[in-house]
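Private note to self, pasted from the team thread so I don't lose it. Backbone tokens:
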């Protein structure tokens, strides 16, 4: 009853980029293209890996899970964001807002842990190739995947439950493109200091620790690459590592800046751009960086395409 007496807000208003109405239409077109390309790229990876038995190994099964996460987080964020851009501002119910927040945290947290598991997999494959089948056996692979999804689920459940328990009795305008924790928390009619302490600690554990482990893994990989005798092999490996680290740094860097200090001194527009970096660009770039440049992915993709063409010509 206390919650009902204090919380008078039944819906929120997402403002988007309403301060720049002249950009709304152009941004709508750009984001729509990004959304469609993201869905197509990640769906191709999911289909190819699912159908091609030769790709049913840890490296590509991790990629399949990553693509599922990227499709999911895009589907949670992008449709609402496009509506906001099309209408300049739009209302979202209290329940829908926190449901969106939950899934953003769930899939975002899962991606954090999956990227860490993928770095460990590459570390084991490059640095200990003879022991790799033992280090990354089926049981260990399944445990890493289940833990990644389970920890993402826990993050979403704990943080969303806590934020939604605050009373919201004042302004209901969220100066953001979707319901993300920091901008929603700014509207709470209560002292959020303890939550901010939790958010800081959680960010360090959930984002920074896996990120540091990834950097450590790739440092070891680079040392192993330097010992290679083949110049071509070294160049290819360096290119792959640089691409992976670019994607990882983009995701972890912008996510940590967003969640490290929910009431930080960043301007609202800067916060929106940081959120777009990990929620829009990372799902868009991951298929290109991790899979579609890979010859082992290209071969089954071409095979499936030719099979489809042959069926249409019969």
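Design output:
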């Amino acid at each position: 009853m206390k919650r009902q007496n204090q919380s008078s807000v039944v819906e929120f208003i997402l403002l988007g980029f309403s301060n720049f109405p002249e950009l709304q239409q152009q941004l709508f077109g750009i984001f729509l293209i990004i959304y469609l390309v993201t869905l197509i790229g990640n769906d191709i990876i999911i289909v190819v890996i699912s159908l091609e038995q030769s790709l049913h190994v840890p490296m590509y099964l991790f990629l399949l899970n990553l693509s599922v996460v990227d499709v999911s987080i895009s589907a949670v964020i992008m449709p609402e964001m496009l509506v906001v851009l099309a209408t300049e501002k739009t209302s979202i119910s209290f329940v829908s807002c926190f449901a969106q927040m939950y899934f953003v945290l769930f899939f975002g947290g899962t991606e954090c842990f999956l990227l860490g598991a993928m770095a460990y997999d590459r570390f084991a494959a490059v640095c200990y190739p003879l022991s790799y089948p033992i280090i990354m056996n089926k049981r260990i692979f399944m445990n890493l995947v289940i833990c990644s999804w389970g920890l993402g689920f826990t993050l979403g459940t704990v943080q969303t439950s806590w934020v939604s328990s605050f009373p919201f009795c004042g302004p209901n305008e969220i100066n953001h493109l979707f319901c993300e924790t920091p901008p929603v928390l700014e509207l709470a009619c209560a002292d959020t200091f303890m939550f901010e302490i939790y958010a800081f600690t959680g960010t360090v554990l959930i984002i920074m620790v896996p990120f540091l482990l990834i950097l450590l893994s790739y440092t070891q990989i680079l040392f192993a690459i330097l010992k290679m005798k083949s110049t071509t092999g070294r160049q290819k490996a360096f290119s792959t590592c640089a691409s992976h680290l670019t994607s990882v740094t983009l995701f972890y860097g912008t996510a940590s800046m967003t969640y490290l200090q929910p009431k930080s001194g960043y301007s609202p527009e800067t916060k929106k751009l940081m959120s777009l970096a990990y929620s829009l660009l990372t799902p868009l770039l991951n298929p290109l960086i991790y899979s579609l440049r890979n010859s082992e992915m290209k071969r089954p993709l071409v095979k499936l395409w030719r099979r489809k063409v042959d069926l249409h010509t019969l």
